[in-house]
Specification:
The complex is a heterodimer.
Chain A lengths: L1 H11 L5 H11 L4 H26 L4 H22 L4 H20 L13 H5 L4 E5 L2 E5 L4 H18 L4 H11 L4 H26 L4 H24 L2 H24 L1
Antiparallel strand pairs in A: 1-2
Helix pairs in contact in A: 1-2, 1-10, 2-3, 2-11, 3-9, 3-10, 4-7, 4-9, 5-11, 7-8, 7-9, 8-9
Chain B lengths: L2 H35 L20 H9 L3 H29 L3 H19 L2
Helix pairs in contact in B: 1-3, 2-3, 3-4
Classes of the chains: A mainly alpha, B mainly alpha.
Chain lengths: ~260, ~120
């Protein structure tokens, strides 16, 4: 089934399936966008939970930061999912295309660690967010800053997730990395487990509204799981730079198509 | 991180993985049943119609799954998948209770409440 392929390819890009799955389903297979988003949300939960299972165990993610910010993303997801029925499909398409373009851009730029920490922040200390993470030379401690900014950005990330069926990982990582000054590895792993929760909130609403069709979600989810398992193996042997360029290119094309479709 | 916290994290990791696997079992099994009964999937996904009532509510999903209908089984698997992160959050509540971190018990309960709200009637 075509949906299997969509899920599989989605997982391989490593961007978090949702971003690729929805365009593939809607543009290539002409699936109605509501069904596509429902299926994509489900697959996002699958990949995120699977990956988070490994990361949490290694002690990188900061559960407190993640949980606190989850309030924001979950509210955002509920809002986003609620918006879906009010927005015209073409508007969703256009927003999606724009977000897609941004993701393509973001995946091209390399990330450097935000640099040395400035020192403790009052809100973060009250919320006991500072923590440590394992490095080659032992446990490295860090401070968390910019809590209100992080919260605000997470609201946006949540809305995007509920509205478009994506994980919003890029926004989350950026918020934690730049606004809250978390070490990069902590940002990525914490974002990973947050994505699952956010997607679950969105998916819950979609399920209640009848947007999740088992016949469609089933192959997509299985494809995604298979794809991520295989992708992990393939990535070890392929050259990362080339992959990134290819995927960014594909996504840019998809983005333009989505916008074009929306404008028609 | 203290060792108690690390242990909590480890259990959480296993919980997540178990949830995904359990869900996948149902989805795969349900998929097999579904495809066996409908070899030519002709559902038209181009038009949005909305799923039948039974597949939308938790009680309905269990009913369909117990009746061994393919779509019911799949939907149950999907429900389990959605429930996995929720279980994870619920577990966090317990973990924070154990650590007597009251602030985060409240934080996590808020998140949990929001998630349950999404499944129940948003």
């Amino acid at each position: 089934m075509g949906a299997l392929l969509a899920g599989f390819l989605g997982a391989l890009t490593g961007l978090g399936g949702g971003v690729v799955i929805v365009p593939l389903l809607t543009l290539v297979f002409h699936v109605d966008i509501h069904y596509a988003i429902g299926a994509a949300l489900v697959s996002v939960i699958a990949t995120s939970s699977g990956a988070a299972a490994a990361y949490v165990r290694e002690g990188y993610s900061n559960v407190r930061v993640g949980m606190f910010l989850e309030i924001a993303t979950t509210i955002g997801a509920l809002v986003g999912a609620a918006l879906v029925i009010h927005l015209h499909v073409s508007a969703i398409s256009i927003i999606f295309g724009v977000v897609l373009l941004y993701s393509a851009y973001a995946s091209m730029t390399e990330h450097a660690d935000s640099g040395a920490n400035a020192g403790p922040d009052r809100i973060a200390t009250r919320l006991r967010m500072d923590s440590t993470y394992p490095t080659a030379s032992g446990l490295q401690s860090y401070h968390v800053r910019g809590v209100p900014q992080g919260f605000g950005l997470m609201l946006v990330a949540g809305v995007l997730s509920g509205l478009l069926g994506i994980g919003s990982g890029a926004v989350k990582v950026l918020a934690m990395d730049k606004a809250m000054k978390l070490p990069f590895k902590v940002s990525t792993t914490t974002s990973n487990f947050m994505i699952g929760v956010t997607a679950a909130a969105g998916a819950g609403v979609y399920l209640r509204r009848g947007y999740i069709d088992p016949g469609l979600a089933m192959p997509v989810m299985l494809g995604v799981l298979a794809g991520s398992l295989l992708g992990a193996r393939l990535l070890a042997t392929a050259r990362v730079k080339v992959l990134r360029l290819v995927f960014s290119g594909v996504i840019a094309v998809l983005a333009v198509e989505m916008i074009y479709n929306g404008l028609k | 991180m203290e060792s108690a916290e690390r242990r909590m994290d480890e259990i959480m990791g296993r919980l997540l993985r178990a949830g995904v696997i359990l869900s996948a079992v149902f989805v795969l099994g349900g998929g097999a049943v579904y495809l066996a009964r409908h070899p030519e999937p002709v559902t038209d996904y181009r038009v949005f119609q909305g799923e039948p009532e039974e597949l939308r509510r938790i009680s309905g999903i269990f009913h369909e799954a117990l009746a061994f209908r393919g779509r019911g089984l799949i939907q149950l698997g999907l429900l389990i998948l959605i429930a996995t992160p929720i279980a994870r959050v619920a577990f966090s509540v317990l973990a924070f209770l154990y650590q007597r971190d009251w602030t985060y018990v409240v934080v996590t309960l808020i998140v949990l409440g929001l998630l349950v709200y999404s499944l129940s009637g948003a």
